[in-house]
Amino acid sequence: MSEAPALRQVDPAASLLLTDLYELNMYAAYLAEGMTATAVFDFFVRKLPPCRGFLLAAGLEQVVEFLEEARFSAAELDWLRGTGRFSDQVIEALAGFRFEGDLDAMPEGTVFFADEPILRVTAPLPQAQLLESRLINLLHFQTLIASKAARMVLTAPEKILLDFGLRRAHGAEAGLLAARAAYLAGFSGSATVLAEARFGVPAVGTMAHSFVQAHESEREAFLAFARARPAQVVLLLDTYDVEAAVRTAIEIAPVLAGEGINLRGVRLDSGDLAAQARLVRGLLDAAGLKEVRIFASGGLDETSLAALAPAPIDGFGIGTSLTTSTDWAALDCAYKLTEYAGTPKRKRSTGKATWPGRKQVFRRYDGNGRMAGDVLTILGDPQDGEPLLVPVLRSGQRVGTLPGLAEARARATEQLARLPEPLRRLEAGWRYPVAVAPALAALAEEADRAVAPR
């Protein structure tokens, strides 16, 4: 069926049509069978990638906003009706769709591990089912990027880290939400301007090589740029020759100072960044410009950050490796039914088995305040430690105030500081202990017996 012109004005990020067809198919089938009792679904990651010792929860704010606004527009309903796939009864039910269920989740910025639910939806079965694809989409991406960014923050704790990844991101929403996720994990800012307008992520930026190339000389380019943008002057040095460029920057620094403009920094974007940084630092210091910072960018990730740590570089711009998580581009995550009409449900597929029922995760800490181990259990089974899943929505309404990005960022900082030392060092192969409580194991056996072949 061809595109409906009226749908061109629909925001894809807010549309309930941004889903898999099988969600709508199941919605219709549940209605036909009268299966509208309460269901429970968990979002979790089945297993950690070999290159990830922990993950950082992100995306809850966008999930809540989506649930609060989730409804079908008249244009969307007309289009669905026109496909002929669904009955008038289903279209009428979709017209009244509102999320009226409960949501429990780990707060954004919480460290978590495999098989631990970071979000639980409790709602009528058709309603909870229809939300699956978009909830996975929102939680997976920001969690993936925040977890990648956290590794860089741990690798370069004393450095300024900036998101430069919009141009290589997989689409507009990905670029915007990557900036948010990186800031949550501890980055200092982003080159993406809309991230500041939407989320308050500080926007940062210098110049491109094209600006230098467009002028007759680097001196002319540097002076023009500084006079046009006098507040935060950072000059790009590697368009032609780094040493010549930094000498030009040193030469014009007193000219600019006489005009009340301070040279704040210089940026390197190619070549042997460590060697160039040492050269630039030496020349700047000899000229009395010790306060001028050196920034570097160009194909960096946590491995190169570790290698560049001894170099006199104050900050890094991280692009492609951040916004596409190049070393591991997707998490094995899922949104699965764990209870229906009061009965525990459990998937037993090979390699994809799930834990049934409504669950809670408890976290213990050692005497130094470091994470010591988690326990996954059923709701109501008391355990030592801090319960990680907290109420977010009840009957579709917020419980208190949802923590904002600044609070999530502060939580992420606190959580990363409390990681066991092997995880802080990104030690490969080290696994954090997560135990399954006897009560949960017993519930799994009960669920298995209920669906035994007969």
Automatic annotation (TrEMBL):
Pathway it works in: Cofactor biosynthesis; NAD(+) biosynthesis; nicotinate D-ribonucleotide from nicotinate: step 1/1
One MF term in the entry's GO annotations: glycosyltransferase activity
Nicotinate phosphoribosyltransferase C-terminal domain span: 383-443
UniProt keywords, alphabetically: Glycosyltransferase, Ligase, Phosphoprotein, Pyridine nucleotide biosynthesis, Transferase
Modified how: Transiently phosphorylated on a His residue during the reaction cycle. Phosphorylation strongly increases the affinity for substrates and increases the rate of nicotinate D-ribonucleotide production. Dephosphorylation regenerates the low-affinity form of the enzyme, leading to product release.
Reactions this protein catalyses: 5-phospho-alpha-D-ribose 1-diphosphate + nicotinate + ATP + H2O = nicotinate beta-D-ribonucleotide + ADP + phosphate + diphosphate
Documented EC number(s): 6.3.4.21
Enzyme class name: ligase
Top-level taxon of origin: Bacteria
Keyword Transferase belongs to the record: yes
Domain Nicotinate/nicotinamide phosphoribosyltransferase intervals: 161-339
InterPro entries reported for this sequence: Aldolase_TIM (IPR013785), N/Namide_PRibTrfase (IPR041525), NAPRTase_C (IPR041619), NAPRTase_N (IPR040727), Nic_PRibTrfase-Fam (IPR007229), Nic_PRibTrfase_pncB (IPR006405), Nicotinate_pribotase-like_C (IPR036068)
Domain Nicotinate phosphoribosyltransferase N-terminal: 17-139
Ligase as UniProt keyword: yes
Physiological role: Catalyzes the first step in the biosynthesis of NAD from nicotinic acid, the ATP-dependent synthesis of beta-nicotinate D-ribonucleotide from nicotinate and 5-phospho-D-ribose 1-phosphate.
Cross-referenced PANTHER family: NICOTINATE PHOSPHORIBOSYLTRANSFERASE
Family of the protein in this entry: Belongs to the NAPRTase family.
The protein, known as: Nicotinate phosphoribosyltransferase
Organism whose genome encodes this protein: Benzoatithermus flavus
